[in-house]
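Quick one:
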Amino acid sequence: MGRSTRFHVTNSVRSSPVRPSRRDLLWACAACFASTATGATSCRPQSRPLREDGRIVVTFWYAFGDLVRKVLLEAVARFNASQSRIVVKAVHQGDYFESLAKLRTAVAAGAAPTLSHVVLEVLPYLARAGVLEPLDAYEGAQTMPFLAPLAQEGSFDGGDARLYGIPFNRSTPIVYANARMLDAAGVRLPTTWDELERTAQVLTVRGSDTRWGYEVPISWWYWVALVGQAGGSLVAPDGAVTLGGAAGEDALALWQRLVNADRVMRPPPGRDYQAWQSTNESFLQERIAMMWSSTAFVRYLENNARFPVVAGPLPGRDRKSVPTGGTNFVLMRSAPDEEKQAGWEFVRFMCEDNQVALWSTRTGYLPTTRTAAAQLAESGYYRLHPNDRVALDQLVHVTPWPWAPELFRIERDIVEPILEDAVLTGRDPRAALDQARADARVPA
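Output:
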């Protein structure tokens, strides 16, 4: 989930008046995978593995741009140079949601890649559709020392006991602030919702060129964080989609209050907009003093800000709570066995401590293994880069996602549009989320 959002989307994403919206792409994606699951299409194994100069070709579809793309391609080159049996061909497929749409087309055509990476919340859906390779029997799959909240078992509550996803670029939302503005106002990063409102008021400067005290993308990932902080959960123990109940309504009401009553948070510039990119750019241009964004942006923000950037954990209300985001590696079931085994070797390479540590320090994503995190701590890296440590320390407050195959559809098709509309129009939070709950009960 995120972004991924909450879904982390790379800095290369650009809006376009002719590009289909992410919701359009995801609707098509869901429709295709649904037809795959019901037998309208098939996951026909390809008849033979691809080879190049005697080496098995692993086609790896990825969805990164800019700095992260550069770091990934360097890692692929290191793997290819480290041995002579396998060559990984990394192919850019746009952002996370464009990549999913292309993946569904490839699955329908029997031409899926060997390896891809998908946003966390879609994993249960793809597993139910039968398009993912179970990984339990692959060498080392059960013994990799992943940080518990980032492993599949810790990322989800309940669900399929089989292993389908290996943590790759993983993140949590964190607070970023302009340290210079904090110092000038004599305030610190907030630790509660009440402090968040008061701090945002102090940091807001009105005038011909308003500086907003706070901003967060009106997006599912951040709303889920607020739901957990207010003591709610998305799905009840009996499987009913509650969307947090009263906690979900309180989360939406907080946004409405900050935007419309307190006027300390910038109103969303429109529906289905590039919220993450817009928020980051406003922060760098010093039009906002404090924001919530993904830890994945820590290196980008530090490298591009003209002021000192300070990061901190999200505040709480009834409790501290954060969702995880980012993507997991997945092998496509339809790929030839020899290609899948070769793809697994690349995944294991990317999970080695040195590779995990390099990936984390170059990008800002979390180190996914306990041993890599310990290596970074022992080397003194976190003493020199305290912003990188924030998300790692915050993992103790992770609330797992429910293993709910319909969750991704509910997120993108139902909840996110309602959140945007309610903040823009001031619609009653209970009425808005009652509609979302009713829509969620309607089968796709």
